[in-house]
Design goal:
Blueprint lengths: L2 H13 L12 H20 L1 H5 L8 H26 L5 H10 L16 H21 L5 H29 L3 H20 L11 H6 L7 H19 L9 E3 L4 E3 L5 H11 L3 H14 L1 H22 L1
Antiparallel strand pairs: 1-2
Helix pairs in contact: 2-4, 4-7, 6-7, 6-8, 6-10
Length: 315
């Protein structure tokens, strides 16, 4: 088959909802787009452990500490499934990690904001995991098989994360005046950065059109962002708190909430590495990687020992 026929039968498979698997023929740009998105997603999970890890030693009770440790461990697991899915596209994990640590690879803008109070743990769970899950439910049906399968498992855990975040804020919202103020302050700080997680508006999104044709993405950035605003604008009523947007208003004609303009200059600034915590995050990741070198060496030595032992037994 010539390249034209290969591309045609590839698109036909996508249109018929047949998953693309690692050994199938795929256009080079499809491979690269998936690799870019899956590895960025994996990096986001791993870097996303940092702002929450910050609160493990300061969680207000043993129960809250145990829940937070479990959540942060879940994020590590998500990163690992996603690195494995990305590896099926022909790049090594070492290469991906190197790209993250050198600052070459992107990860979600949201993790470059600081977690200043305990209420931030609730806001991250409710808003950040809430935004992540809307995006990820769509990705359970993405066209690349290993990515879609990883997402099914991730989504189950992510929905639990969102509920625990909401519950944390619900407790604070029923607490003392200080606790209520802390809750409102965290919502104020995390609202706009959470909206930015969905990426630039559709008119500025360089990858969306092709990714939608290939069914890597099933919904556009703006569609998902609107879905998120509609969901959160209702849920916040249960907390008795407000969202920091004077333009947020139900639009009866559109059957959606209208909302204010995002500060896109801030978004691109963070994406380019100049957010409040970008440098700090990369320093922390590099330090953890260097300090973990002996664990990787020990695991490799142990695996080698087991292989040698098996060889002796067979002989
Ligand atoms: N931050 O053309 P588009 C989580 C870049 S997981 C930084 O629209 P695309 C779990 C984009 O890469 C959160 N960069 O791009 C958790 C592109 O640059 P490139 C992560 C961004 O790919 C919770 C350029 O802008 N989730 O939170 C961002 O079609 C709590 C143009 O953009 C995923 O990664 C951004 N926000 O759509 C963990 C989901 N947005 O690469 C711990 C999978 C855009 O061409 C604690 N990813 N850019 O140089 C996706 O669905 C997509 O990649 C989008 C962006 C929707 C993020």
């Amino acid at each position: 088959m010539n390249i034209h026929d290969l591309e045609k039968s590839f698109q036909d498979k996508i249109d018929r909802e047949i998953k693309i698997e690692p050994k199938d023929w795929m256009p080079e740009a499809y491979r690269k787009t998936n690799l870019r998105q899956i590895s960025q997603h994996a990096h986001s999970e791993i870097v996303g452990m940092l702002p929450e890890g910050n609160w493990i030693s300061r969680a207000p009770s043993l129960k809250r500490k145990a829940i937070l440790i479990a959540k942060v461990q879940d994020e590590a697991g998500h990163g690992l499934y996603l690195y494995s899915a990305a590896e099926t596209l022909g790049t090594s994990r070492d290469q991906m990690i190197e790209d993250l640590h050198s600052g070459k690879a992107k990860y979600s803008s949201i993790f470059n904001y600081p977690t200043l109070t305990w209420a931030d743990m609730g806001a991250v769970g409710w808003l950040v995991d809430g935004a992540a899950i809307l995006n990820q439910v769509m990705l359970c049906r993405t066209s690349y098989g290993p990515y879609a399968r990883a997402m099914v498992r991730i989504c189950k855990e992510e929905s639990f994360h969102q509920r625990q975040g909401f519950e944390t804020l619900l407790v604070l919202s029923k607490g003392t005046a200080e606790q209520r103020a802390m809750c409102q302050d965290a919502i104020n700080r995390w609202w706009w950065p959470s909206l930015m997680m969905f990426g630039p508006k559709d008119s500025e999104s360089t990858n969306s059109d092709q990714s939608i044709k290939w069914k890597i993405k099933r919904k556009t950035n703006d569609e998902l962002r609107q879905q998120f605003v509609d969901m959160i604008a209702e849920q916040i009523k249960l907390l008795g708190m407000t969202l920091p947007d004077k333009d947020l208003k139900w639009n009866e004609e559109r059957k959606h909430y209208d909302f204010g303009e995002i500060n896109w200059e801030e978004f691109w600034n963070v994406v380019k590495g100049n957010g409040p915590c970008n440098k700090q995050r990369l320093v922390a990741r590099n330090k953890a990687h260097d300090e973990g070198a002996w664990v990787r060496a020990a695991a490799l030595a142990y695996a080698q020992k087991r292989t040698d032992h098996k060889k002796v037994k067979v002989a």
